[in-house]
């Protein structure tokens, strides 16, 4: 059964509901002002400095990465040799 809304429609709201709505609005307003305060404070803070990577640090990291790649290549070669041996024994 559909109810039609018109100018003569009556809406009943209890004091408890009004209190809940008022609390919700007060909470939202408080959060808004708190957020605005945090934004204003963040604007005043100094920007974080970017980390400076020295040439030595870069070279050491690059060397470590290259060594890791070489070790991985050696491991792959050992695995391939092992696979060849397994295939030979399988076919025998």
| Number of DSSP E strands | 0
**Strand coverage percent:** under 5%
Describe the sheet with the most strands: none
Percentage of helical residues? over 70%
Structural class: mainly alpha
Query: Mind telling me the C-alpha Rg?
Result: 35 Å
Q: What is the residue-mean pLDDT, rounded to a whole number?
A: 90
- Total helix count? 2
- N to C succession of SSEs: HH
Backbone shape: elongated
Number of domains: 2
First and last CA, distance? 84 Å
Which residues sit in consecutive blocks of at least 5 with pLDDT less than 50? none
Descriptive tags:
single chain, 92 residues, mainly alpha, 2 helices, 0% strand, elongated
SSE layout and pairing:
Layout: H1 15-44, H2 55-91
Description:
By secondary structure, the chain is an all-alpha fold. It has two domains: 14-47; 49-92. The chain has two helices and no strands. The protein has helices spanning 15-44, 55-91.
Outline of the structure:
The chain has 92 residues and is an all-alpha fold.
């Amino acid at each position: 059964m559909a109810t039609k809304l018109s100018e003569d429609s009556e809406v009943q709201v209890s004091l408890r509901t009004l209190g809940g709505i008022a609390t919700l609005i007060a909470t939202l307003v408080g959060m808004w002002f708190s957020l605005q305060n945090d934004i204003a404070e963040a604007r005043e803070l100094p920007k974080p400095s970017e980390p400076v990577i020295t040439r030595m640090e870069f070279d050491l990291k690059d060397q470590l990465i290259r060594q890791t790649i070489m070790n991985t290549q050696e491991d792959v070669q050992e695995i391939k040799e092992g696979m060849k041996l397994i295939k030979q024994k399988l076919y025998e």
